[in-house]
## 1
Amino acid sequence: MLNKKLLTLCACAALAFQVHASEPLKPAATVNGVKISGEVLELLVANNVAQGGKDSPELRAALKTELIAREVLAQEAKKQKLDQEPSVKAQLSLQQGALLADTLIAKAAPKFNISEDKLRAEYKRQSELLADAEEYQISHIVTASEAEAKAVIKAAKDGRAFDQLAREKSTSPTGQKGGSLGWLMGNQINPALFNVIANLAEGSVTSVPMATPEGWQVIRLDGKRKFKVPSFEDSKQQLVNAVFANERAEFVQKLVKAAKVEQ
């Protein structure tokens, strides 16, 4: 229902915070007198493991080699005063600000109120919003030109099977599936396309091609049905994400309101 990346983002920030908060580790290496902290190496190892890698001497050796190369490059960049360039300063400031913000959110997250009552209240709110929602089963054919799309429409009207036309003519990967996009809700469809789709009869094809960034679209409405709201249990992870997002927004707004902001 809402952004599923939130908890992943929080988890990454929490990991960074935990590494930062642990006891100081032995330096991973020293380059021209500059120490590369063991915490940096451990963070890279943890990130690789989180992505499916395996903590091993070989992985650590490869990461250490990469860190040494980065440090050599960074030192040379500073020698050439690249760190003083306005654009580089701006990027460094953005990266530092983002890391600090994520770390603060991770530290505050355990205090967020993600109770059963909150989850059920969010479920009720979203269920009410979706009470009258509909889903549309759609197939489409995408062509590079308007002329090709018009030819597809004519062929469909002459009785050619839409799924076969999709396999032969569509430039979209969905062509291999007969052009099927499956079941979509209105808010998942390009608004310009949805205005046309909502007025199509089931089984009918759009009478004129529609220009989109992907190409010229020819669409068939295969079916329409009322959206069935999933159960509370089936929605639980999405509800946790939604409540977390609300708690995060409230936390941020509280800090923003307390800040002295001049523009």
Note: The two ends are 35 Å apart (CA to CA).
## 2
Amino acid sequence: MLSRHLIRNASIARVGMLSCARPQLRFISFKQEDQPRIRIGSTAPNFQVDTTKGKIDFHEYIGNEWVILFSHPADFTPVCTTELGAFSRLKPEFDKRGVKLIGLSTEGVDSHNEWVKDIEEVETQGEKFGFPIIADGKKEVAFKYDMVTEDDFKNLESGMVATVRSVFIIDPNKKIRLTLTYPASTGRNTSEILRVVDALQLADSKGIATPVDWKKGDEVIIPPTVSDEAAKEKFGEFRKVKPYLRYAKV
């Protein structure tokens, strides 16, 4: 275990030296006015990076599938370890839904690979860790997707920067469909992220909305833009609570 943390410290030192000796490695601009606007419906910014599974072009990685991109403050941190383990255990469920997973922190591939060994030891019960982790040493992705705190944004030009716990669900058209941002201290709910994928995919395929706390198999909401006649033709019998609040099974 000690050797892994020594590798991590060496990785941090290397990043620090590179940031001083080779400034051309940094992203071209960290000016706030140059930062892409990430909104629901925005095209996910593209990037090319090293990962634990080799180099990727992000848009090529998305291909024609859904993707969940999520960031972590740093390697070898306790909350992140539990999260990555949980995502890896849930990977078969995401696979069933045609969803790829990809994580990120601003440390290097060597550090990530050592961290994965810990995750496999303590979180996946020896099962192989199932998806790539981005090595965002240049902090390009952290900048493009606004994955840092207010204070760290001011320090993007220098040294290591910890990302916040960002989550982006991206559809096959490379459009942002959900954004979540958690503080570094708060672990995410992987079941909620899976639930949102189910809701989005059902809404896209059936033209419905989902109510509070909806889960797969529950009633859905018929949009107000659909008339009662059209709703009956499309869904069969439905439950009308108010003219604007109608429930159906799909």
Note: The chain has two domains: 2-187, 207-248.
## 3
Amino acid sequence: MKIGLFGGSFNPIHDGHLLVAEQCLQRLGLDAVWFLVSPGNPLKNHDELAPLRDRVEDARALLDHPRIKVTGFEAAHGFRYTYDTLKFLTQTLPDRNFVWIMGADNMVSFHKWDRWREIANMLPMAVYVRPGSSRKAPGSLAATAFARYRLDEDDAPLLATCEPPAWVYLHGIMSGLSSSVIRAQRKDAKIAK
């Protein structure tokens, strides 16, 4: 079974996240995508972070798709970093072919993640184009460090069965939606009331 792992705070979840999941299902030939709603991102300010339960429920409501699963299991296991989550999943479910899915904006800052090189060596990665990051991501520190392991976009269906490190940069339909912009709009709407 080929499973895409799409992690994040999803604060809030929006149609752009669904777009990425659907594109990865199709273009990578995945059997499923699991949304891993994190308790929090160590690199972000948590002042505006909605409760995990609310974010998981909102994600389940939006992502009503037979091949998409939403979970907040990281909090139950006390996982704070992506590395710990991925290590747990790859060791617990060794019969699955996992692919880490991230937006190009995350690839730009991937080198700041805890044990980022080990993550890249643990499972293949799909990086999906995002507005404002389409030129920065391919030249990022992480992309440069793993440049020789980049697959051609035409070979994306092979990614899930590739020995890591392996990654592909997917171009395609983009959404201009942004969780931070949505939060700012909601904040402005509350102030205007």
Note: The chain has one domain: 2-192.
